[in-house]
Specification:
233 residues; elongated; mainly alpha
């Protein structure tokens, strides 16, 4: 019984390994389960034994590589630390470092960023992407709310807006670096960009981020030509 279970786990890992390589080479939409089975030296039946469809296989591939990143971010905001900004920074840098230094993590993130089309058969893939994004957002927002209560960052804008901006920053760094990793050093540039962003939150002022439109009286331009006195020349 133990050997049978070990064999099944080994087969599952081999299928995930093959899926990574084929997805990376052909893209997710253009890859069939037969392609993956052939790359793994197995039959489609072996795939269906472990995964109900291609989306389930893709999500399992993502979980295997990105779970450590998600677990690290999941710990953000859970402890009543007196330095939540340091906790937020550490989580973001952990994600960038793993992507930059771990080949499998880099390959899988590259597939997720550049090789996925959210067509009907991959609706579950999109659902997972949204779920993970919102979960990370919730933890980061909780930490930034605590930072506001401690007076470490400005009370405005809201912690939600701060979180959305931070996620956009880090996501943009990853997406651009995945296109061409010679454009910049992911971890060094990432650290500088994150520090600059967090520093900006500390210095933020409600007057600078207010959404209140300017008073019409201040924006009014006279339609009458100005009356200039003769110069006497």
């Amino acid at each position: 019984m133990r050997r049978t279970k070990e064999d099944a786990l080994q087969t599952r890992e081999q299928l995930l390994d093959a899926a990574e390589l084929v997805f990376s080479d052909k893209g997710v939409s253009r890859t069939s389960l037969q392609d993956i089975a052939q790359a793994a030296g197995m039959t489609r039946g072996a795939i269906y034994w472990h995964f109900k469809d291609k989306a389930a296989l893709f999500n399992a591939m993502m979980d295997r590589s990105t779970s450590p990143i998600e677990e690290t971010i999941g710990r953000v905001g859970q402890e009543a630390t007196h330095d939540p900004l340091t906790q937020v920074r550490a989580a973001m840098m952990d994600a960038l470092t793993r992507i930059a230094t771990e080949p499998r993590t880099r390959r899988v993130i590259g597939i997720a960023v550049n090789k996925v089309e959210y067509v009907d058969e991959l609706s579950d893939v999109r659902a997972r992407h949204v779920r993970v994004h919102l979960n990370c957002q919730a933890h980061l927002e909780k930490a930034l709310k605590r930072a506001q209560k401690l007076g470490l960052v400005a009370p405005q804008p809201s912690a939600r807006v701060m979180t959305v901006g931070l996620q956009a920053l880090v996501g943009g760094l990853i997406n651009t670096w995945m296109l061409d990793d010679t454009l910049f050093h992911l971890t060094r540039t990432g650290a500088q960009a994150i520090d600059l962003y967090l520093s900006g939150l500390k210095a933020a002022s409600p007057s600078l981020v207010s959404s209140k439109p300017a008073s019409p009286s201040r924006c009014r331009v006279s339609a009458q030509p100005s009356r200039l006195k003769p110069s006497g020349l």
